[in-house]
């Protein structure tokens, strides 16, 4: 048996690839593929809003939007070791841009700054998150250089979730604890079985949201303990685009339902400015013995919804729809 030939792996200085942060690294990171790499590291779904955004006399490197909760995400780049100046800039930018997720990327996050980010995560509200990310470059032989993002600091989401749901000195109610356990178990199922749906931090509430690839749109899993029903749905929430996107998708109703494999309920809700496409079924979320079956079905449906809707939503142009055209189509169907 021949001994396989193995290459050697070499760590590359980021400055060799990106000599200038603003001119080289920021444009690279702002590209969709690279932003996706960062997003998968921290468990978010990011959509670029812009680069070099002005905040008073300063300029923030990258501003994104989290497509699941529609909140702003600020990214500050530093290809050296972290320093006090950039820490101050982060806080200035976050306040000026109303960003609730702040990401500090550096070649190395020094211990004092890691401690500062950990402290900020411990004292701020649940909605505000600070991440410290270290960027590394690796190369095997003469192969292309490969980037790697490493988490140096992140929020303690479970601690924040419990604190907010119960009050700082209280405990979760039995209902809230059940909800938190329910979504935690679903998240574990999604992770274990490699679902394309990115798990989010579980919260003690009757729903859980997931990214579907377009701002103002999300996948949602819901439970109704009173009526003993559970559902997976696509929620279209953008004030201007929800109704147009709903009707454009409904034009492909038969194809979409064929791909997902179940009949869907198409629910326009103009009074709430939210349009919903969902599949609902009878199940008791209070019965922990039923959870494996419920979560298995949720995982399958979330994946099917993501496959059926994500590409369509990215490609649809809401301006192509008009109320008049929709009314004509409704009359023709009736």
TrEMBL record:
Gene3D superfamilies registered for this protein in UniProt: 3.40.1350.10
Domain DUF4268: 178-312
GO molecular function, one term: nucleic acid binding
Pfam families listed in its UniProt record: DUF4268
InterPro entries (alphabetical): DUF4268 (IPR025364), tRNA_endonuc-like_dom_sf (IPR011856)
Protein name as catalogued: DUF4268 domain-containing protein
């Amino acid at each position: 048996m021949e001994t396989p030939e193995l290459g050697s792996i070499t760590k590359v200085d980021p400055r060799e690839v990106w000599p200038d942060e603003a001119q080289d690294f920021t444009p690279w990171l702002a590209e969709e593929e690279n932003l996706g790499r960062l997003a998968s590291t921290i468990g978010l779904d990011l959509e670029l809003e812009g680069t070099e955004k002005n905040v008073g006399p300063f300029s923030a490197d990258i501003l994104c939007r989290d497509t699941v909760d529609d909140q702003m995400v600020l990214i500050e780049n530093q290809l050296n070791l972290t320093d006090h100046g950039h820490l101050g800039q982060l806080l200035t930018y976050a306040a000026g841009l109303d960003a609730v997720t702040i990401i500090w990327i550096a070649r190395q996050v020094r211990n004092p700054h890691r401690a500062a980010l950990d402290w900020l995560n411990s004292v701020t509200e649940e909605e505000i998150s600070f991440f410290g990310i270290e960027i590394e470059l690796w190369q095997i032989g003469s192969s292309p250089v490969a980037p790697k993002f490493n988490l140096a600091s992140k929020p303690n989401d479970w601690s924040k979730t419990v604190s907010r749901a119960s009050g700082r000195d209280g405990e979760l109610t039995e209902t809230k604890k059940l909800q938190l356990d329910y979504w935690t178990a679903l998240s574990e199922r999604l992770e274990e079985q490699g679902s394309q749906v990115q798990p989010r931090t579980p919260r003690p509430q009757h729903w859980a949201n997931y990214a579907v690839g377009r701002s103002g749109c999300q996948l949602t899993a819901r439970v109704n303990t009173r009526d003993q029903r559970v559902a997976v749905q696509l929620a279209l929430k953008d004030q201007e685009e929800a109704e147009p996107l709903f009707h454009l998708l409904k034009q492909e109703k038969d194809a979409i339902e064929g791909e997902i494999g179940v009949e869907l309920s198409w629910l326009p809700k103009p009074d709430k400015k939210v349009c919903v496409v969902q599949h609902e079924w009878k199940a008791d979320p209070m019965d922990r013995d039923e959870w494996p079956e419920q979560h298995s079905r949720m995982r399958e449906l979330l994946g099917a919804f993501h496959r059926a809707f994500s590409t369509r939503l990215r490609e649809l142009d809401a301006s192509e729809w008009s109320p008049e055209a929709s009314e004509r189509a409704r009359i023709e169907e009736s």
